[in-house]
Specification:
Blueprint (H helix, E strand, L loop, with lengths): L10 E2 L12 E2 L7 E11 L3 E8 L2 E8 L4 E4 L4 H8 L1 H12 L8 E7 L13 E5 L4 E7 L7 E9 L6 E8 L5 E8 L4 H15 L5 E6 L2 H15 L14 H10 L4 E6 L7 H20 L2
Parallel strand pairs: 10-13, 13-14
Antiparallel strand pairs: 1-6, 2-9, 3-4, 3-7, 4-5, 5-6, 8-9, 8-14, 10-11, 11-12
Helix pairs in contact: 3-5, 4-5
Length: 295
């Protein structure tokens, strides 16, 4: 990587680096390398987003070049090193400005975990292994999963016209014993049902330390594999200061997964997967039954 020059000229940061997806992170915040940055957006255009960045007593100015998907830094100082180390996370935040989530003058409070093992889109389709045993965190992805696990299949359903919702789940022990569960609600949403279904299943598996979760919810997969670790260190708020949606339930699920080896697998909806299709049908029937009961 080129050395950053001193002075007012912006220097581009090369984004060629190796991502390591299997790392160990101590689960204690005191020993994790948590970085909190205050970012103020000063200008937004179709080509460049300009921001002021503060960390403790240091400050800097950055530009995000949207077409090139590259960052440039104005000054070489202690903060520039932090920016370089966390550029992948920083660019994810700045991309939100392109979607209208950020306005000029807005302050963004970012929590970064240095060397966090982000997953790419291809890996979200694989088996995602999250090991939180032994007070450590390991995250990796692979094309297959072996071992003796308790399996949890879940799905949620929501009747848009009335708001009636339900979820369903199927538990399977390593020796093939199965347990079915479901629950209905007068109000809810698809994402909430997906989340509550997993919580219900994990509560039934509290004494088990190896669980495979199968779900068609990207919301649940991304939350468990990535988002919760940042929300936890940002007082369960987003970078933009909003309270995390369903924060109470995310905290509950995050706690239920503590000390376990979790393997997450996304199943495409309506793909013919036997157990997932069963959960889908049961959740739908449960929601429709609740709808009929309240008429």
């Amino acid at each position: 990587m080129k050395r950053l020059p001193y002075g007012s000229r912006f220097c581009f940061i090369s984004d060629v680096f190796q991502r390591v997806f299997t790392i160990l992170l101590p689960s204690n915040e005191a020993t994790m390398n948590i970085v909190k940055l205050k970012i103020q957006v000063t200008s937004i255009s179709n080509e460049v987003i300009t921001c002021l960045v503060e960390h403790q007593s240091a400050n800097n100015q950055i530009k995000y070049h949207t077409a090139l998907k590259e960052l440039s830094i104005k000054f070489s100082n202690s903060l520039s090193i932090i920016i370089i180390r966390n550029r992948f996370q920083l660019k994810k935040v700045l991309n939100s400005a392109l979607k209208g989530c950020v306005t000029v003058g807005q302050n963004i409070n970012c929590v970064f975990i240095e060397d966090f093992p982000f997953l790419n889109e291809r890996q979200f389709n694989q088996f995602i292994c999250i090991d939180r045993r032994h007070k450590q965190l390991t995250i990796n992805a692979s094309k297959s999963s072996n071992g003796s696990f308790h399996k949890l299949y879940t799905d949620g359903s929501h009747v848009c016209e009335t708001g009636h919702s339900a979820y369903a789940g199927l538990l399977e022990t390593p020796d093939g014993h199965q347990e079915i569960f479901s629950r209905s609600f007068d109000k809810g949403s698809s994402n909430l049902m997906e989340l509550l279904a997993v919580i219900d299943g994990m509560e039934r598996l509290q004494k088990k330390n190896k669980v495979q979760l199968f779900t068609d919810s990207r919301f649940v997969i991304r939350g468990l594999a990535q988002w919760v670790y940042f929300w936890e260190h940002n007082n369960w708020q987003t970078a933009f200061g909003a309270k995390v949606k369903f924060a109470r339930y995310w905290q509950e699920l995050h706690q239920l997964c503590d000390g376990k080896l979790m393997v997450l697998k996304w199943i495409k909806g309506h793909s013919g997967h036997e157990e997932q299709s069963f959960c889908h049908q049961l959740a739908r029937q449960t929601a429709e039954k609740q709808n009929r009961m309240t008429k």
